[in-house]
């Protein structure tokens, strides 16, 4: 039976690392995004595992574009059983004044970061429901945490956590699990020393996310949903996801 995974968004390292790990586990891969910096390389490496891989351009903030992309995935491969959506909030410049204009910029940045998750999950959930054991994994990309970046990243992480838990409850009866993978604070004593987050070799954040994704799509993880799993990222300085 053909198993298909959609990897939407993702940086130069995290998205490809997840795609390759899923391909090694027997999944055909569909890459979704508006820009593909390393798509050709990823496609070739997936095919080395004997799996199919396609790259579909889509504006991840546009519902119609994403819905059309999922339609192309279904036609070329099959209905996906796994959706991995990678979110990378863009840091705002330091030194923004504490006024309404700065607040509006931060609000816009947070909304822009969160929308692809909502759009992709909305479009993909219907496809996953056909499998009765679908998996949705939201991945937060690490960003440079210097200066006042936390003013943007903390609301994004809070929003991702809230979305994950709400979606997990909504989709529980259908057998679809929803989980979040996010960077741990590098100052957290529980986080082991890792290689730089931008490194796609063993021990990097991308490799850690790929490991977690591999576990979450396994049948043995069917009872895990609505959870936030932190992975150490040496260059990330994101706030810890606090329990509510």
In sequence order, what are the helices and strands, one letter per element?
EHEHEHEHEHEHE
Derived from helix and strand composition plus strand pairing, the structural class reads alpha/beta
Rg is 17 Å
Strand content: 15-25%
Count of distinct strands: 7
Helix content: 40-55%
Number of helices: 6
- Shape from CA axes? globular
What are the salient characteristics of this protein?
alpha/beta, disordered C terminus, single chain, 6 helices
In short:
With 244 residues, the chain is α/β, with parallel strands linked by helices. It has helices at 14-24, 39-48, 63-76, 100-128, 150-171, 205-216; strands at 3-9, 27-33, 53-57, 82-87, 135-140, 177-184, 228-232. α1 links the parallel β1 (3-9) and β2.
3D architecture notes:
The chain has 244 residues and is of the alpha/beta class. Helix content is 40%, strand content 18%. The chain is built from six helices and seven strands, in the order E-H-E-H-E-H-E-H-E-H-E-H-E. It has a seven-stranded parallel β-sheet with strand order 3-2-1-4-5-6-7, sandwiched between helices. The chain is globular.
SSE topology:
Layout: E1 3-9, H1 14-24, E2 27-33, H2 39-48, E3 53-57, H3 63-76, E4 82-87, H4 100-128, E5 135-140, H5 150-171, E6 177-184, H6 205-216, E7 228-232
Parallel strand pairs: 1-2, 1-4, 2-3, 4-5, 5-6, 6-7
């Amino acid at each position: 039976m053909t198993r298909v995974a959609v990897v939407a968004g993702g940086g130069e390292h995290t998205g490809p690392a997840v795609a390759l790990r899923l391909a090694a586990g027997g999944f055909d891969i569909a890459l979704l995004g508006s820009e593909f910096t390393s798509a050709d390389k990823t496609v070739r490496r997936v095919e080395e595992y004997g799996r199919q891989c396609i790259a579909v351009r889509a504006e991840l903030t546009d519902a119609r574009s994403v819905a059309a992309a999922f339609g192309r995935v279904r036609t070329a491969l099959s209905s996906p059983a796994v959706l991995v959506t990678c979110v990378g909030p863009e840091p705002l410049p330091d030194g923004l004044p504490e006024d309404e204009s700065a607040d509006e910029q931060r609000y816009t940045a947070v909304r822009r970061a969160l929308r692809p998750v909502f759009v992709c999950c909305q479009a993909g959930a219907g496809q996953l429901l056909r499998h009765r054991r679908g998996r949705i994994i939201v991945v937060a990309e690490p960003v440079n945490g210097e200066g006042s970046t936390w003013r943007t990243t903390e609301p994004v992480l809070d929003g991702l956590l809230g979305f994950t838990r709400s979606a997990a409850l909504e989709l529980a009866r259908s057998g679809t699990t929803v989980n979040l993978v996010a960077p741990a604070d590098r100052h957290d004593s529980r986080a082991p020393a890792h290689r730089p987050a931008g490194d796609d070799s063993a021990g990097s954040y991308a490799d850690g996310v790929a490991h977690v994704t591999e576990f979450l799509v396994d049948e043995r993880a069917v009872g895990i949903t609505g959870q936030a799993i932190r992975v150490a990222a040496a260059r990330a300085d994101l706030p810890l996801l606090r329990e509510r």
